[in-house]
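Hello everyone,

My group is preparing for a crystallization screen and wants a predicted model to guide construct design. The compound we'll soak is zinc ion. Before spending weeks at the bench, it would help to have a computed complex in hand. I've included the protein sequence and the ligand's SMILES below. Output in structure-token form would be ideal because that's what our pipeline reads.
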Amino acid sequence: MTTVTSPLAVWTQLLEGNQRFADDSVVRPNSDRNRREELRGGQAPVAAVLGCSDSRVPVEMLFDAGLGDIFVIRTAGACVDATVSGSLDFAVETLGVKLVIVLSHEACGAVGAAVTAVEDAVVPVGLQRVFVEKIAPSVIEAQAHGAEGRAGVEKEHARITAEHLIDRVPAVRDGLDAGTLGVVAARYRLEDGRVEPVLERFAR
Ligand SMILES: [Zn+2]
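Reply:
Good plan to model first. Here are the tokens for the complex, ready for your pipeline.
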């Protein structure tokens, strides 16, 4: 990736990379020995992405980005906890990323578990209960807004998570207020490889 200055320019560049990925015309930028050497002195990624741990959603690959380009946080269902919030705070405050992206995806198992729990009123026991606890609010809001099917819940989950980060992570809120940070929510489609935006905020 080339050096860009504004949050919107970063988003445009990432979308161009996603287009190349979807078209099978990746250039794999910043992935060679020189880049590796250059990064020994430190990192200055342009964006932070909170995505799902799902093995089908490798963030750098689907944006055709390279080493040192994206600060990636992945949890199952892109769920937020204190470690995630702290990691994002670090990315914004210390690394100076210009864009925060919350990325959900097609056929997300964690979202599916939450949908099943809400619709069948059966909450799993054990550690995986946490996904229902974290995602059920998105299912309820999606249904209240008339969102269509699983895809609708996946989009709503990304949007609500992004709003949550704006409200609760001071560095994100302040960056948005100052115009130095953009916040995007999007859903990745396995079907065609495209990242579809559902929320794009570049100023409060
Ligand atoms: Zn997932």
